[in-house]
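How a chain folds remains the central question behind the approach discussed here. In the encoding step, the backbone of a single protein was reduced to a row of integers, each denoting a local shape. We regard such an encoding as a compact summary of how the chain folds. The sequence in question and its structure tokens are set out directly beneath this paragraph:

___
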Amino acid sequence: MSYPESLHGTSEDLLIGNAKASKGWQITDRKLVLGYGEECFQIAVQQLFSWKAHQYAGITVTQTNTTVELKFWSIRSYCRVLKSHQGSRRAILIYGTLEKHVERGEEAFEITMADNDQVTAHIVAFSKPAKWWAKLANPVVRWVQLRITDKYLEGLKS
């Protein structure tokens, strides 16, 4: 992993509000109501675990066991899946960055179906630039990161 071991699992804590940003780390926290009902939940879960939400955002994904290659334009970044679970009303996918990633950190994707059958997607991440050019162009890289996150959310509805 390309970020401190003491931060492993922090993204799941961020999902439930039990963590705060560590100094120097950028936090992404986005939610979107996807719709209502079991069919909506199942579609969102399928979009998440098949990587179609990532594809919707323009990311090509290749997975080998727990290692995931994310390709955006000609930039390749690598992650490790840390958690992948689907229950009857909650699904979660978490991955952390490996050394060949543009950023350092973790990203968590959660899909929940509330008691009123409302289906919500929640994405949180903590990150900081890893590559020199990402540090130099951090405002642009951050804008792209937030735009991609919003596209992930939209892709969960497709």
Remarks:
- Residues 138-155 form the longest helix (18 residues).
- The mean pLDDT is 92.
- The two ends are 32 Å apart (CA to CA).
- The CA atoms of residues 102 and 131 lie 5 Å apart.
